[in-house]
Amino acid sequence: QVQLVESGGGLVQAGGSLRLSCAASARPFSNYAMAWFRQAPGQERDFVAAIRWKAGNTNYADSVKGRFTISRDNAKNTVFLQMSSLKPEDTAVYYCAAALFGSGGVRPDSYNYWGQGTQVTVSS
N or C, which end of the chain has less CB nearby within 10 Å? Predict the structure, then answer.
């Protein structure tokens, strides 16, 4: 059973920054692609960013390119999402996801394991 726990969400003003963390029980952690998705109330879960297993290539949604950075620390079993220049439309619950030997796909069903989410609210 792989467990993912997100943290770091909160309330920030537009233009601010926030770093999300996801602690994973998956072992070996480096064998898992990791991703971040987000979901606003009543909306579908949308892809944000992903990083291939073994810290391979990264992939970003067009809406966050140049503002968000995904990274991983395999020794600490943790993936991060550094968010900068935040906009009100970034407001959502952010979810961490994992896929064994994944390539960092954009579809939610590409991922086998999910965290419970952390709320990010960006005020105007």
Answer: N
| Tokens, residue 25 | 């029980």
Name the amino acid, one letter, at 52. R
C-alpha angle with apex 53: 28 to 10, nearest 5 degrees?
Answer: 90
pLDDT single digits (tens) 57-101: 999 999 999 999 999 998 999 999 999 999 999 999 999 999 999
Residue whose entry in the numeric block shows the structure tokens 């896929």: 99
State how far the Cα of 1 lies from the Cα of 84, in Å rounded to an integer.
33
Which residues contact residue 124 at a Cβ distance below 8 angstroms, ignoring those fewer than 6 apart? 13, 14, 88
* Distance separating alpha carbons of residues 8 and 109, to the nearest angstrom: 25
> Please, which residues bridge with residue 6 across strands?
22
